[in-house]
C-alpha cells in the first residue's frame, strides 16, 4: 500500500472513530434500554476495582480484569461510570487504530484494509452487544473488545505481510499478535482457548517464525508483569473462578445449545459458508489458509455458544479472511465448473449478507443513543452522585412488574400439576414470583428500608438471588470474596452479616439453589430472622 493510500486509510478510520466516539461522548451520559441487571453487575466490578480490589483475589468473576480495568481507572480519577464506559471505548479505539493501519498497510489492499478497519472500529465503539435488537446496552461490552483483538491477531497471523523489508517489521507483527492474545486472555478466556492454537499454526504455516518468537516473548512479558504486581495466586484464583463457572448449572452457557449454534436455522447459513470457504480455499491451492480456517471454525462456534445472544460476529472476520486469501488463490475451475476465485468472493459476500443486520445495529447504535429523549430516562443509582450519568428507561427503572402464579391461587384456575413445588425455607413457604421490570427500584427500596431500620451501615449481605448488588444503593458494604453475578456455591457468605431472601427474586431457580445449599450446610450456617417486609425476609448470619 502506498503512502498516500495509507494516509487516506488512516483518515477514514479516524473519521469513523471521531463520528462514532464523538456521538457517544457528546451525549454526556450513557442511556441504556435494557439489561439493567447486567449493568449492575458491571457497576459492582468497576466500583470494587476503583476501590483497589482485584478480580479473582477479592471477588469471584470468570471475566478477566482487563474487561473492566480501563473503566475502573477512569472512575477512580473522578468520571461518572456512564462517561467512563464511553471514554474507555474511545481510548481502546485510539490504541487499536495504528495497529489496524499497520496490518492494512503491510497485508491488505486499500479497500479491504478499510473494510477490516471499519469492522474493528465498529466493534470497539458500538453501544450494543450485537444482534438486531435496537435498544442500547453496554452489557457484554467485553465480548466486542475480545472479538476486535481476535480479528487483529488472526489477520496478522494468517495473512503474511507483503512488505518484507527487514526483521524489525516481523518483531512488530509479533508484538501485536502477542499483545492481542494477552488481551483475549485477560478479558475472556473463551477467546484465548478458541484461537491461540490456530494463530500459532497460522504463523508457522505462513513462515512467520520470527513473529511467533516475538509473540511468545510478549506474552511471557505481560504474564510476568501481572504476576509481579498481583502474585502467582492471581492466576490460581482466575483458574478457580473459570472452573467454578464451567461446572456451574447456572450459567456455563447463557443461550442456545452448541448444536443449535452450529445447525439451527438462524446459524446454518453461516456454518455452510465457512465450510464452503474451506473447500474452495483448498481447491484453489491456498493450503495454509484452508487448513487454518478449518481450525478456526470450532472456535467460532464455541465463542458464539458461550456469548449471550449467540451472535455469530465471526462472519465479519470470515469475509475479510476469504477476500484477503483470494489473492493467493490459483485462477482455476473446480469439478463443478466454478471459477474458485469468483467462488471465494461469493462466499465472502454471503458471509457479509448474513451478518449485516448485526453489523449495522452495532454501527449506528451511537447515533440512536445520541438522539434519544433523556426525559424518558432515570438514573439506575438515584443516590449515585456523579454516577447518575448511567441511566435506563424510566419505565424499566421505576415501574415494577412481576410474574406470579395464578393457577391454584385464583378461583376457577386449578393448580398446574407439573409446576415446581414452592420452596420452604426456615418454615416459610416462599411465593412463586419473579421480578420482570424495575429491579433497580426494588433494590433501592430494600436498602432504604434497611437504612431506616438501622441495619445497613457498614454491613454486608448475601442475597438469595442472581445479583447481590444492593450495596450499590446505599450504606451497605460489598462482601469479601463475593460474586457480583451468582454462578454457584455460596461465595462470600462467610463475610456476610445477613442473608436477604427476596420474596420476588429475579431468578427463582437460583434462589432455590442458594437456599438449598444453605440447608445442606446445616448447623455450619446459623440463620435467625430479624426483619420481614413485603419485599424480603432478612436473616442474621452467625
Structure report:
There is one protein chain. The protein has 542 residues and is α+β, with helices and mostly antiparallel strands. 56% of the residues lie in helices and 8% in strands. The protein has 18 helices and 11 strands. The protein has a 4-stranded mixed β-sheet with strand order 8-9-11-10, with no helix packed on it. A hairpin with a 2-residue loop joins strand 5 and strand 6. Helix 7 packs antiparallel against helix 8 and helix 8 packs antiparallel against helix 13. The radius of gyration is 25 Å and the shape is elongated. The termini are far apart.
Tell me briefly what this model is.
By secondary structure, the protein is α+β, with helices and mostly antiparallel strands. The protein is built from 18 helices and eleven strands.
